[in-house]
Amino acid sequence: MNRYSEYEALVAPARARSELWQLVLGVCATLIGYVALVYAALSIVLTVPSLLKSFQSTGTPTGMMFTLFSFGFLTLALLVALRLVHHRGLPTLLGDARQCLHQFRATLKALLLLSVVVWLIPSVEGMDLFPNLEMSRWLLLLPLSLFGVLIQSGTEELVFRGYLQSQLAARFRSPLIWILVPSILFGALHYEPDFYGPNAIYVVISTTCFGIAAADLTARSGTLGPALALHFVNNLTALLLFGMQGDLSGLALYVLPFGPADTDFIRDALLIDAAILLCSWLAARLALRR
User: Fold this and answer.
1) H helix intervals, 8-134
2) DSSP string of 84-110?
3) CB-based contact 94:13 (threshold 8 Å)
4) Looking at residues 50-73, what average pLDDT do you find?
5) Buried b vs exposed e over 194-214: b needs ≥16 C-beta within 10 Å?
6) Least confident segment among 82-96, 126-140, 198-212
């Protein structure tokens, strides 16, 4: 049996308009719409200097919230591009609604259980956590923070595993193309040499591997549910529980004892992330029985 036979449910809606020029046009339309919406939002923020200052750094709760919720503009832009270029709706990127929700819940439960097990493992020397936000403030922000992480991670899955992957799968039969191309693009967009220094390429490799795992789960399950759960739990841990010092730590309860410039610590953390990703992929497959 073809391990990706279920994926036809997501590929079929893309077949009618699957020319490469249409994909390029759709991507361009999405990016233009996204940039326009972000600039419109920023133009409003610029009129209030106090807001601008708090939005400038993702090391603050306000700045981090703005960053997370700004991904909603990308979802809106993608929705319009899908209609105009591909004559399909956003739900076609998710698959059957009931099945998608069921698989999201099953995968989420498995990954949360795995996360608890991982958190119970004693930390290695030099990896002690430091308090970041006060517990009371963190809990107060938590409902909005969770929604923001869901929007951010969900948008990335809609774009890369929902849109790009299904459009390429409708055009090319080989999984090497429709799994690897979106995953490599996903990884490349995380290339930040000014932020990660010599580890930037390793971050790209790590993110590409995450993309491959999410792409495989999407193709095996026939919905975006498992990939959404994988991405959500990953970002929940990295952004709301145990953030790195500096940028992107604005909503984290704790921060790790290192930042992006700490080369050796980052490399060790990436190795740990790779092991957790492998376990998460296996746990998701076990939950889905696929």
Assistant:
1) 8-11, 20-45, 49-55, 61-81, 97-120
2) III---GGGGT-SHHHHHHHHHHHHHH
3) no
4) 82
5) ebbeebbebbbebbbbbbbbb
6) 126-140
260: pLDDT confidence band, cut at 50, 70 and 90?
confident
pTM: 0.93
pLDDT at 124: 54
Distance CA 161, CA 221 (A): 12
* Rounded-to-integer distance, Cα 190 and Cα 147, Å: 22
Integer Cα distance of 197 and 186 in angstroms: 19
Q: What are 232-258's pLDDT values in tens digits?
A: 999 999 999 998 887 788 899 999 887
254 three-class SS: strand
Query: Residues 101-122, buried b or exposed e (16+ Cβ, 10 A)?
Result: eebbebbbebbeebbeeeeeee
Tokens linked to 275: 């092991």
DSSP, res 127 = -
Pairing of strands 242-243, 254-255: parallel
Q: How far is CA 88 from CA 15, 74, 85, 94, 290, in A?
A: 10, 17, 8, 12, 28
CB distance 28 to 67 below 8 Å: no
Q: Percentage of the chain with pLDDT > 70? A: 94
Q: Report the side by side order of strands in the sheet with 130-131.
A: 130-131, 254-255, 242-243
pLDDT value of position 55: 66
Flag whether pLDDT at 68 surpasses 90. yes
Query: Minimal CA–CA distance to 247: which of 110, 67, 92?
Result: 67
DSSP lists the bridge partners of residue 255 as 130, 243
CB atoms within 10 A of CB 224: 26
Q: What's the longest Cα–Cα distance across the chain?
A: 60
Cα 233 to Cα 149: distance, rounded to the nearest angstrom: 9
Q: Count other C-beta atoms under 10 Å from residue 263's C-beta.
A: 14
